Amino acid sequence: MTERARLASTTVVRRPRTTLEVLFSPDTDTAGALARQILAAEAAGLLGGALKPLPEATRHAACQQAAVHGVRLLDADLIGLVVPGWQAHRDLAIAARRTLAAPGRTERPELAEHRITVSQQPAVTIEAEGRGLITVRLGLAVDFDITGLTAQLSAGRLTAFCGGRCDARVTLVIQETDMLTRHAHVDLATLTPASPGLRLLPARAYLVAQEIEDSAARLTSRRAG
Amino acid sequence: MVPLAAAEPASGSAHWTIMSLEITLAVALFVAGLLIDRRASRRRRTTGEHGVRAIAHPGAPITVALQVSGAHAAGPLAGRELAAGPLGTSPPGTSPLGTELVAARAGEAGDQLCGGQGG
Fold first, then answer.
1. What is the Cα–Cα distance from A105 to A221, expressed in whole angstroms?
2. What is the DSSP code (8-state) at residue A18?
3. What is the predicted ipTM?
4. Are A87 and B87 within 8 A, CB to CB?
5. Are the beta carbons of B52 and A62 separated by less than 8 Å?
């Protein structure tokens, strides 16, 4: 994301699972909270006064509708955002290939401090009486700072973590302006499925490994027969 | 001209014909009313309570960049943001200034998450 203006406030959230749980606490009406942010953007003039001609109730309804769609567009599992970064991590990819090539083998590479940056820029168009009033450009910027982490891999999959720390900073952006920034400690161990684990290699690598394993099993059974 | 009082009352079968026509008409009106109401409520749902509606645009795929700190993590590439691009890695030993910087699309990995936690 390019340089953005800033209206953001900062808070720390504990043990979230999704991006919107970081931004708005889990027991909050997420759509309502996002609608308030869109209204705040409108009040700050970020929407160019496009909603000004509407009566107040209609303006609120428009922001609420935009927020309902925005929630669907912006909410994502934190672990689902981190995994593509790890798939590109050289040490993890090499260890994953070794464990995939040798079934039963487990590796525990220590990961150097790294940062995974995720950005997403959906939009919502608000229409009134069939006329498009404005397209609200939403955005989400997430930074994961990961330190002192030891990963456990087997069969090309990430199955567990030992130690380490992952801090996430999630920023809600509306019309290129930071509206809300929240920090959270992400518990990677809780979010990682132990079985079958997270795939770190392209799907084809697992297919090839499976084919090799199957043909080896056929050979063994033929010899035994 | 025949005075009303002198008009013959309708016969039994004619009376029942008129009654059934009235009932049919009442049912037809009731069904038409129901249909009109359903269409109106559907329109209300699509356009919202105040005649407003919102259309979602998912936009470009999520972009993901990885930056691994090394001996010279503060090099010129550190912190640079990459545009969306295919998944790639720096070849071993060729990371610029000790910093590995690659980009991937999150959507590509979304379907690769498997199983439930601890399952």
1. 23
2. B
3. 0.75
4. yes
5. yes
User: Is B72 in CB contact (< 8 Å) with chain A?
Assistant: no
Burial class for A2, CB neighbours closer than 10 Å (0-12, 13-18, 19+): exposed
For residues B85-101, one letter each, b for 16 or more C-beta atoms within 10 angstroms of the residue's C-beta and e for the rest, the string is eeeebbeeeebeebbbb
What's the gap in Å between the CA of A209 and the closest CA on chain B? 16
Question: Domain residue spans in chain B?
Answer: 11-47, 63-110
CA atoms within 13 A on the CB side of B43: 9
Sign of CA dihedral A93, A96, A102, A108: positive
pLDDT per residue of chain A (225 residues) written in tens, 0 to 9: 445 666 555 555 567 889 999 999 777 899 999 999 999 999 999 988 888 888 888 888 899 999 999 999 999 999 999 999 998 888 899 999 999 998 889 999 998 899 999 999 999 999 887 778 889 999 999 999 999 989 999 999 999 888 889 999 999 999 999 999 999 999 888 887 777 889 999 888 898 888 888 888 888 888 887
Residue A98 token pair:
């070794």
* B55 Cβ under 8 Å from any chain A Cβ: yes
State how many domains chain A has.
1
Domain limits for position A148: 5-224
User: Model pTM?
Assistant: 0.67
Check whether the bond before A53 is cis (ω within 30° of 0). no
Q: Tell me the chain B residues in contact with residue A84 when contact means C-beta distances shorter than 8 Å.
A: 64, 87, 104-106, 108-109
Tokens representing B69 are 């700190």
Identify the three-state secondary structure at position A129: coil
Contact B92 A54 (CB under 8 A): no
